[in-house]
């Protein structure tokens, strides 16, 4: 079993308050977040951005393992995740994570690429934890 930690500190009200997020690795250390970073695109981070980063990273690594098991090695894979936050009743919900992948993988055909990309999409741990629609647009580059 692997445990990873992060913590948040918040001071003030929901709209006027401010917080910081720190991760175990130190990659984020007292990174500011608040209403303005979440809903107004001000500098700082927000939970949805962190979910998007986690999903893009998890999916891409899962695909690397799928490729390895099938005898392929990617020259490069670039994945973007766009996480959608929507109003739901009196609150909000992460409703979607849209993955967009461009990959250069020598020797693979389109059918095998699609099969492995789909397996990574459904099999990565972050996909499994999200209670949201997950989509994947995967492009195999001929580079």
TrEMBL record:
Keywords: Oxidoreductase, Peroxidase
Gene Ontology BP annotations: response to oxidative stress
InterPro entries recorded: KH_dom-like_a/b, OsmC/Ohr_fam, OsmC/Ohrsf, OsmC_Ohr_Peroxiredoxin, Peroxiredoxin_OsmC
Keyword Oxidoreductase: yes
EC number: 1.11.1.15
Record flagged with keyword Lipid metabolism: no
GO molecular function: peroxidase activity
Residues covered by region (Disordered): 1-23
Protein name: Peroxiredoxin OsmC
Organism: Methylobacterium symbioticum
């Amino acid at each position: 079993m692997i445990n990873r930690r992060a913590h948040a500190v918040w001071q003030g009200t929901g709209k006027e308050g401010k917080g910081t997020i720190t991760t175990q690795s130190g990659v984020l250390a007292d990174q500011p977040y608040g209403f303005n970073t979440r809903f107004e695109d001000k500098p700082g981070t927000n939970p949805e951005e962190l979910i998007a980063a986690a999903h893009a990273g998890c999916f891409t690594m899962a695909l690397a393992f799928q490729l390895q098991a099938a005898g392929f090695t990617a020259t490069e894979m670039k994945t973007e995740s766009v996480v959608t936050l929507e109003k739901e009743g009196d609150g909000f919900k992460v409703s979607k994570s849209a993955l967009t992948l461009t990959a250069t993988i020598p020797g693979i055909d389109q059918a095998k690429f699609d099969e492995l990309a789909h397996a990574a999409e459904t099999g990565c741990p972050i996909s499994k934890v999200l209670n949201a629609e997950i989509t994947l647009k995967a492009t195999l580059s001929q580079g």
